[in-house]
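Appendix B. Extra example for self-study. Work through it before the problem class; the solution is given directly after the inputs so you can check yourself.
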Amino acid sequence: MAVASSVHDAVRLRLAGADQRYTTQRRRLVEILGRSGRPITMPEILEAATGLTQSSAYRNITVLSEVGVVERIAGPDDYGRFELAEAFAGHHHHLVCEECGTVEDLRASPNLERVLGELTRLAAAEQGYVVTEHRLELRGRCAACAGN
Amino acid sequence: MAVASSVHDAVRLRLAGADQRYTTQRRRLVEILGRSGRPITMPEILEAATGLTQSSAYRNITVLSEVGVVERIAGPDDYGRFELAEAFAGHHHHLVCEECGTVEDLRASPNLERVLGELTRLAAAEQGYVVTEHRLELRGRCAACAGN
DNA sequence: CTTTCTGCAAACGATTTGCAGCAGC
DNA sequence: GCTGCTGCAAATCGTTTGCAGAAAG
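Solution. Structure tokens for the complete assembly:
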């Protein structure tokens, strides 16, 4: 399943706004992240596409982060995980397998999200917080590991 | 506010179960983490108590993690953050300030917890996960930074 | 006393960066 | 063509580890 060209257009636009170019390598990164459907590590990114240099991949991930196209999250191990930002991948949460370390996406129903958003805003307000985003992390065993 | 001696007793017990000793330095770490009321970085830990060596502090944090007394979470920057595990600090969530990077604790209302429980059940059902724990991360501006 | 800690200094590994040549616009 | 990107190799920095002396039980 390829990434929609509208996504590429939007990315190009964001990059242009920061005087950045949408190069072959950056396009490939967006493709890989968009296809994976879950946050992936740098080793996984490099494995998914030959021809990417590690240092340049890091540099480009950084640039894409700065223009709000990519988000970096911290996994259970030493590796950072990268995914398309919510504006491109949609709002979702994460399931972290404590056994194999994989991180999966989870989409919640609009109903639950609405209640969640409201309650979090309320709770945080008690401590003077202005909440801009919420992210839920569920830890446990993924289907594959729970079967063992 | 000092850490209750019952906590120290429980920690000593857990350590003893792994053939580990409850040394002065480990006790001091538990004190610091227990008093902070929020996850703190290694620099903050070392600043909070003179006489702690960095390498030993890391080693002891690792040991305390292994026996389930300390938990390590990833903050917005390069530093890991450490806190007492839920068994000692109670169930709570995190507020991450996008401006200053500080991480605060947030205790949720029963209402909010109920919604989280529902999301958890949903995840388990849809993707075959066995969820053991949930953690909510709210991003935004802390009271100090929102005032600016 | 024995085993586990501690401190020091050196090692590690993910990520970053300087520099010279290449590619987008 | 100018400017910004790429690849390479070296640097950075939080964290880990080896080893010899100190402390817990």
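Self-check: The two ends of chain A are 30 Å apart (CA to CA). If your reasoning did not lead you there, revisit section 3.
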